[in-house]
From TrEMBL:
SUPFAM superfamilies: Zn-dependent exopeptidases. InterPro entries: Peptidase_M28, Peptidase_M28B. This is Putative peptidase. Transmembrane segments: none annotated. It holds the Pfam family Peptidase_M28. The lineage of its organism: Bacteria, Thermotogati, Deinococcota, Deinococci, Deinococcales. Residues 222-412 form the Peptidase M28 domain. It comes from Deinococcus deserti (strain DSM 17065 / CIP 109153 / LMG 22923 / VCD115).
Amino acid sequence: MLRAEERQLLDAVTLDRPWELITTFSTLKREHPNDVRRAAEHIERHLRELGIPVEIHQPELFLSLPGQASVSVGGTTFSAKPMAMSAIFPEGLTAPLVYQPSQYAANADDMFSSSLLDGEVDVAGKIVVTEGFGMPGKIRELEHRGALGVIAINPGARAHWGICTSIWGTPDLHDLPRKPRVAVANVNRPDGDRLIDLARAGAEAVFKTNLEEGWFVSPVPVVTIPGTEDPKSFVLLHGHYDSWDYGVGDNAVGDATLLEVARNLWNNRAQLRRSVRIAWWPGHSTGRYAGSTWFADHFALELYRNCIAQINCDSPGCRWATEYKDVSVMAEATAWAGDIIRDVTGQDMQAERPVRAGDYSFNNIGLSGFFMLLSTMPDDLRAEKDYYAVGGCGGNIAWHTEDDTLEVADRDILLKDIKIYLLSAYRTANQTIIPFDYVQTLNEFDQTIAEYGEGIGTAVDLGRVRDAVETLRTDVRELMRAARSLNGESLTSPQVRRVNFALITVARHLVQANYTRSPAFFHDPAEHVPPLPDLAVLQTLQSADDYQRGFILTHATRGLNRLLAHLGDAQVAVRDALNHLELPVKGGTS
């Protein structure tokens, strides 16, 4: 239920500044770094006119800027859109076409999580024609099988722009070998169907792709609205301001949302207990989240020590997007985020585990997070319009095309979504005790361990990890019970600080264990990460032969060690807080 000061805060939301920014961005393409810099100047101008201090970082990011692409067969040339980070062949790549059947994604999760290829056609030395989007999992598999190029047939009348690398942000030396070496482009469905026929007929094609690749200065505007009690601690609210073409639904509406949230929080900064940091990212589209990754890298220790949550803002306020389903929320934040949406809209939220996409560049630091895409189109309306799955714009298939223009934005829906983001940042920053329920995260761990353990018999002893989960859950539950008595105390209270430090420590360990394979402060690929990924290999044990079995068991042993270490270190922090609160501790030690 909204408190009086929250209602007053939300009542102050207007569309004056947001709509002005959206209108400006609807006439400003934001792909090339020169245009991106102009967009950053517009954001900065609005902030300074409002009297809000803003810091403009100027990192150099590694970006790939798509130009033109074409596929020529005989006397016919088909236009295409090259995928960012794909190989450059301006003079053309000549090879036979081959058709590799593939499924179209049923939802955004499928788009980002799976290759969806049907069977294994011999693609070595050929240009592959296949359905779907040129997403990283598909491209990596086809490149591994020897393809020279990939022509992805998008589901509709428009080809979409996109990026095909699995490398998250600017590559480091571990990532660089994964940079695609194949030409990749998207075509629309009618042209793709013709190319399938030509591939089946054994035709040869000339495949041209032209991209500009290199290091580009890319501004990162950041506003810090200081808290009055604990200014070092902060909530990070963020979204990208670069786009494909004019990108109104993805993500001018998000940029406008961040601007209006900044205005309202700045005007109410005297009521803010912790700080709120609001950031606009470049390099999302052409660098696979390069802007947010740069920030995660260069402010890593500050984020690790002081950030209590990250909230992503991408594609709010789009036409027909009247429902809150498939909302990305980590388990610990599900009830919290659901209450916020219900308090603003009266609607219930349907949550999903965050996919490895968006600007979730902070998992390897261990930040709890919620939201990515927010409001979306009802399924029956999508079916009525014969829309296919896309990764933004509230479900509008204008996503990543020339059609993502001003009419995609909806004033009424945008106003509602701005209020959700504003309340999210304000309420999270003002809670005495960090408001996330890590008991729910540990319940999820239990479910995942049970699923992975099905059918493996005594091959792996999961008893220790089950016990460790239960012990930590008992202690976290006890800590949260005790912490209720601290609500209303100052954030500088030693007991409040101890409890919040313990919860931050729990977050760092559980998020890393549940969402990452790579070490802390590095970045996992932009590919599907299953729950407790180090143990997911157990699902392959039953079908493995004797030769593979030993390798799987070795991997699982190391994964169990990592998970047990995370759980144990989290428990130490919780026990320390409990001991200093001088409350009885239930359960044994780990």
